[in-house]
Amino acid sequence: MTELQDYAERIEALAQRLGLDYYPVDFEMAPASLMTEIAVYGLPVRMPHWSFGVRYIHQLVRQSMGHSKIFEVMFPGDPCRAFLMDGNSTAENALVTAHVLGHADFSKNNQLFARFHAMAGGNIVETAAAHAHRIQLAIEAHGVEKVESVLDAALALEAHIDVGAELHRARYPEFTAAKGRVPETGFQSRFRQLPGADAPAAVKTGQVRAPVPPHSEYDLLWFIANYAPELEQWERDIFLMVRTESFYFYPVFACQIMNEGWASYWHARLLREADFLPQPLYLSAIKAHSDVVRPFASGQQTALAINPYHLGFTIWERIVERHGLERAREVRRDEDDFGFIRNFLDEELAQAAGLFVYETRPGDEIRVATKDINAIREAILAPKFNYGSPRVAATELKHDGSLTLAHDHGSDGRGLDVTRAKRVLDYVHRVWRRPVKLVTANDKNEAVEIAA
Amino acid sequence: MIRIAAETPWYDLFSRGARDWLRHNEKVRDAVKDTLPDLLASSDLMTGPGSRTVAVPVKFLEHARLRLAEAQVNQGAGQGRGEPGDVLQPGREEGGEQGQAGGTNDGEIRFVVELKLDEIVDWLWEELKLPELKPKRTATLDQAEYTREGWDKRGARSRLDRRRTMKEAVKRHAIQGGAATTVIDDEPISLVNDDLRFRQLVKRPSPATSAAVIFALDVSGSMDEAQRRLAKQFFFFALQGIRRQYAKVETVFLAHAAQAWEFDESQFFQASSSGGTVTSSVARLALEVMEKRYDPSRYNVYFFYASDGENAAEDRDEARATLADIAGQVNYSGYCETGGVATFRPRDTQLAEIFSELKTSGLAVGTSHLASQDDVWNAIREFFTEQSKE
Questions:
Q1: Is the pLDDT of residue A24 over 70?
Q2: Which residues in chain A touch residue B24, judged by CB atoms under 8 angstroms apart?
Q3: How far apart, in whole angstroms, are the C-alpha atoms of residue A293 and residue B237?
Q4: Which of A37, A244, A413, B126 is the most buried (most CB within 10 A)?
């Protein structure tokens, strides 16, 4: 412990000398069980929901099969909160310390992270714990079934926020300005000029009730919280809590490759320059590094997934090598994975890393499809579009309170999985409490309506 | 400055993951409960003690999210050796499971919930909104039981009620000590003979708590496998319902074709015969069993008979007489007729006629027709609602 503390302080001094810029980091040693839970919940203390229980069991199974080992988790903020696993060796934890500093630098300076920080403050761990507490109070007040049905709906729509919009967002204006003044007819202008006629009292033309929503609304959590006809206050709260956490998760999601790559770049560099580390410890740390930053499991020739640590690390090394550290810092500030992959993953790199696009056909046959760079980029980015979810918007709120959702199947390329969509709609209906329908397309590109 | 906090031992004390996992399992049980009727068609659960459990394999519940429909061809990004056209994983026909990381789909893991039979039956009773059975009144008188009632200052040592005795002592102490009710100090309270209280026992008649259930099944050639299964299900749930009510339930399994035999449960449903159908044979055997082992004045006897209704024509009068004899003695006799809806029935079968005659003559008789699984629930509902009306 003291040994690690000593290394950690010196690694940090080195990091500052190399120009890493970050909020203070609180490190905490945690047992493996808590690390597992953080991997499942995304946050150390988060609202209870049965679906996390399922993920928890999956995670335990994966860990017991050795597919997944957790080294570190880090929550950006001011201060950042990082958890080290107490079962890891000093070498591993020295590596993790350096890795976390890379994340800390990234999350203070990247525009997406900085934007969330500005909107929600830098204490997501406490915020989420407070949410969990409020939901616990709601369970005590209203019973677990009621709270659960609200969470069923809110968490199912977790990714359906408008990341471009503000976290704290006002309702739509109630009225729209009238559409311009009606031009005067010749008769009216002559009549007005007649002597003795009073100027007509200003006709109230400005007040036209705006339709709700005034445009397709993709922030479904916000829309339901604000416009569901019969939602109670505590239910609105739950929707908004889930939405806040979703805003928090977005930069983590959208910058995963960059962020992990950046942290890997820095842990490698910091360790390389940390001449105070004893040789054996350095060696085991570097061994741990190469385990993390390898494209496929040992003994395998290919992987059907991209290791974000490896890909990001490779791209960052190249950027620093070709354009210098200053340019790398600009990229770290300005881009997310979309810009990062499209601008900096070039043919040469892709070839060196052996990237390809594969296809899974009915019958589960898997073939390498192409090595075209554009196809590779899109295949990497495809799961990241729109927060990894289909584009579904609220399009109409009728006078009877019924809600219409529309799936933008044109831009998604195909329709929704109807069985699941129906179940999500059932969740939504339970909180909306008026008819709800969802329009999407079937495999023949004909419109399909699902109702609940 | 990096602060490395001390280890926090409380992290180990409470697992959120486990909490949510338990909640998930609770929901699974509820889901199982909803599909209960489909689950219970198999295995011989009938005579075992009530603590038996049924293992039901279930899938994880899925929290649905909006997702795109499955594409014909799925694309993904991969890494490693491989040129366009290379097969990375052969189709399902040739190869088995490939141990490829990253392919852990949801729903691959199944688990088993153990359900107690008692619990299942409780759910079912809730679900069907069934009332509790009433024991027969005539059977209530001859059994007497000692029950506790009141206290006395004298009695056998073994019936000393220590709590009562101490209360008395404290009371007396408080009165005698005058204002000394402040705090009970360390000084022990002494007991005198007057403080002692003994429980008293009183002899009370109590309702008979034992029941005997006689199941009779037609196993003649015309009863096919499906019909027997329906009969078995009906028998099973009727028995469970009766078990809920009585402390001790004994069962008798009779099967018949032209002749009747007694079986134990394990063989009961396997028994089959190619002979004709003579209902009076089984009715006579049932009467015999009642006479020898389950005197209806001491037992609550239930008689259930399942048949396809086609009794030999020459047995008609005999069958009516014996069945009427049974119906007159037992708490209730139930007749369920099995047979698909497709069966062409110009009129009631002989047995259906007999039983409805018995019913109109005021005996506690119920009839039902079992053609499908749903009919079993209807029959159960009918039987138990009628029983509680009496």
A1: yes
A2: 50-51, 53-54
A3: 61
A4: A37
